[in-house]
């Protein structure tokens, strides 16, 4: 009888909210992943957990699980925004907060940052989960997850201030950023990084861009206990040459000199002045630290730009910037020490400090 009662209690726990420890971990994962992704967008601050939103989100997730009638938005959520997610799975494998947030974020491909509308004439709803995740005006979130006895999981995340307000998409979804292409793609996760778009490129702004980019490199290198980089005219000329070749061809070109390492970025130019464009692109590359395991290091295409930035033996840097006729801007940063894709943990541990 006691066994049956305990089974009923466990079943009730799953129906109405999953085990508390799993639920708490899930909420923290949702918060962490939101802030990692929001950090990829310029002038977009992180969010914090709000207890009231959390309770309301959990209550709605519980109701969805109990009703078993699909994903229905709550019409009485006191002005809060809402993202919902459903997964049919075994009770042994609940979705993580990061996985859930990633599903929503992947809708970036349906969003046009310049027009503030969906791509290909689709309704904005096809990008709505993504735009809510990175909505600039949002400052607080609350997450809830519930499961029924058949392994169906329901997720509800509430947002304050609510996103997806008609007429405010451009202002709240990267008004000052452009879409990074090619090297801005985190291929393994199929994400596309977003970074600041550059304005017209007279000589003085190229110089300012380089200064900001180098300064930010050195701020970040200092956090890892490595020496600052110094600008080098030869590397600058090489970076500029490669950037101009890229803008002439409309795509990135390979650096065929194995004495160096380089980071590249391709953005869409915008007609507005962004004083910290160089720093923001450096921040974008540095954000790949998320995909680097210091305990079991490996250099690959989802963390390579971060690794090259803080490589211990690098001491010099050169920055090249060029624009093509279609307003595509190519950025090439050259470092005087090569680092290659490698599984040599000792080499990586020696040159990439935590």
Describe what you observe in this structure:
Residues 25-167, 208-343 form the SCP domain. This protein starts with a helix and ends with a helix. It has 2 domains: 10-183, Pathogenesis-related Protein p14a, CATH 3.40.33.10; 203-351, CAP (Pathogenesis-related Protein p14a). It has helices spanning 2-16, 20-38, 51-67, 97-105, 128-133, 169-172, 203-223, 233-249, 277-286, 304-310, 345-351; strands at 48-49, 81-88, 111-112, 117-118, 140-147, 152-160, 177-179, 185-186, 191-192, 194-196, 230-231, 261-268, 316-323, 328-335. It is elongated. With 354 residues, the chain is of the alpha+beta class. The chain contains 11 helices and 14 strands. The strands form 5 sheets. A 4-stranded mixed sheet has the order 1-5-6-2.
How would you sum up this structure in a few lines?
The protein has helices at residues 2-16, 20-38, 51-67, 97-105, 128-133, 169-172, 203-223, 233-249, 277-286, 304-310, 345-351; strands at residues 48-49, 81-88, 111-112, 117-118, 140-147, 152-160, 177-179, 185-186, 191-192, 194-196, 230-231, 261-268, 316-323, 328-335. The chain has 354 residues and is of the alpha+beta class.
